[in-house]
Amino acid sequence: xDISNIFSITLKTNKMKTKKLKTSLTLLFAVTLIGMNxxxxxxxxEIPCGIYADSMRISMILEDITTIEKSMNQITELSKxxxxxxxQLVRWVMNKDEHxxxxxxxxxQYFLHxxxxxxxxxxxEAYEKYQKHLQLLHKMQVYAMKxxxxxxxxxxxxxxxxxxxxxxxxxxxx
Length: 174
What we know:
Number of helices: 5
Order of helices and strands: HHHHH
CATH architecture of the largest domain: Up-down Bundle
Helix content: over 70%
């Protein structure tokens, strides 16, 4: 085998490796872009599909509240330790905040944007119900925010009570 054949084989091998590398990099880039743009959609879409599960959303909120409560208790307990495990503390804080945000997402994206229809002031009783729904949903948003800011279990209880009030007012009228 002469030098020109060796050079030719080496060049072909390098071209194949370069092509495989380009393909791999393109695939990696595509997966990265998809991963960067991924957002979990829990509440619902904003397409008028007519598929709603109102009671399931209430159950999801109640589950999130229970998770927030457990997180707050764990944060309080871990904080009392002589040598707190800061990694666990951070994880519980992040968990608490994540579930508070899930509540805010459901309240906003599902109930306020899609399920609570705008009612004009001149519509009497319907307007009063509309105002009640808005008031309760706003309270839920604020209490969820307070749960993110603190470990005060009072806000968990306020949130639970408000969800129960909303559930009663909402399902009584639907």
